[in-house]
Structure formats: structure tokens, C-alpha cells
Design goal:
This protein is of the alpha+beta class. The chain has an eight-stranded antiparallel beta barrel with strand order 1-2-3-4-5-7-8-9. Strand 1 and strand 2 form a beta hairpin.
């Protein structure tokens, strides 16, 4: 009796594990088709996800380091939970042309500003993208400045985009939309993949 119960339990656990492993790989294969910028279908294929870094010179001739980390839409842990049948609400909301990540900008005094970013890939050419900061305002009285990131392009281990730095007078910090920028400068930024 005990042996039969043990064997039945063992068979259920093995079946559950086999179904989980199969679901994991099916999920990965599906995502490598839907998110070709995030998951590999072959080992030599370059991906947008990962860490990128470089330098740029601000309009006032100050050099700054910049790094961008682009996250996978689904981590391995999220995929494991999804594959064994535990629903993941996040999976329902990620569109195939959107990405999330983190951006950090470091000045010569090693002071670092960190931002969460969200980006959009061109649906016709995934090597073209734009992104923005989710908290897009930095207070430096008497001004606010914000960043815009446009005309992004990535290929293998190189990336570039236009960084627009927008300055506004800081009279009403919670209502920037009503204040026209008094200065706007564009800088071309080039990044390399951190291997």
C-alpha cells in the first residue's frame, strides 16, 4: 500500500517535471520568435538585451559616462513559474516591440544618476528604436533638465542614438508641461556592448 502510494507520487512528480521542462522550452522558442531582439534562436545572433556603455560630451563640454542595461522581457525565474502553470500577470502586458531597462549617467566626480527606461522598437526594423526615462526630470535649481532619446540604432555590439537635453526654468516644478524649454541641445551618443 505504502509502496503503491510512493510510486504514484513519484510518477506524478516526474510527469509534472517533464511537462514543466517541455513548457519551458516551448515558451523560450515562442519568445525567440516574438522577441527576436531579446532571445537567441542561434548562438551567433546578436541581441539588444544586455549592458551597453560609452561616453558623451554635454553641450557645456563636460564628458560623462553613460551605461544602459536592457532587460529581457521575461527572466528565467518568471519563465519557470509560467511553465509549471503559475500565472504571471506581467506576461500579459509586455508588447513584443517594447523593452525596459536602466540608464545611468556618471560625471567626472563619480556621481551617478540612475533612471528606469522604457523603449520602443520599430516594428519593421528591430534595429531602430527610441526610449524615454520613466522619471524624466532632474532638479537643478533654478532649472529643470530632462532627456529625450531618439533615432536609436543598434547592430551587433554597437549602438547609437541622439540624446536631447532640454532645460526649463524651475518656477513650477510639478507642472513642466506649461513651461516652454529655453534651451535644447542634441548630442550623438555611441555605446558598445559590455562583454
Amino acid at each position: 500500500m505504502k509502496l503503491g502510494l510512493f510510486l504514484t507520487t513519484l510518477a506524478l512528480i516526474l510527469m509534472f517535471a517533464i511537462v514543466g521542462v517541455v513548457n519551458y522550452y516551448v515558451s523560450y522558442k515562442t519568445d525567440s520568435r516574438e522577441y527576436p531582439w531579446a532571445y537567441r534562436s542561434d548562438e551567433n545572433k546578436p541581441l539588444l538585451v544586455g549592458k551597453w556603455s560609452g561616453k558623451f560630451i554635454e553641450p557645456d563640454s563636460i564628458e560623462k559616462k553613460i551605461s544602459l542595461v536592457i532587460s529581457e522581457p521575461y527572466t528565467k525565474i518568471e519563465r519557470i513559474f509560467y511553465s509549471i502553470g503559475l500565472s504571471n500577470k506581467r506576461r500579459l502586458y509586455i508588447e513584443t516591440n517594447k523593452f525596459d531597462g536602466f540608464l545611468s549617467i556618471e560625471n567626472k566626480f563619480h556621481q551617478e544618476e540612475k533612471y528606469k527606461v522604457r523603449g520602443f522598437l520599430n516594428t519593421k526594423n528591430i534595429q531602430l528604436f527610441d526610449f524615454h526615462l520613466l522619471a524624466n526630470v532632474k532638479e537643478t535649481l533654478p532649472y529643470h533638465y530632462s532627456f529625450l532619446f531618439t533615432e536609436g540604432f543598434w547592430n551587433k555590439n554597437e549602438m547609437s542614438f541622439i540624446l536631447t537635453i532640454v532645460f526649463r526654468k524651475s518656477t513650477m516644478p510639478n507642472n513642466l508641461k506649461n513651461h516652454e524649454p529655453f534651451l535644447s541641445k542634441k548630442v550623438r551618443v555611441s555605446l558598445n556592448r559590455v562583454l
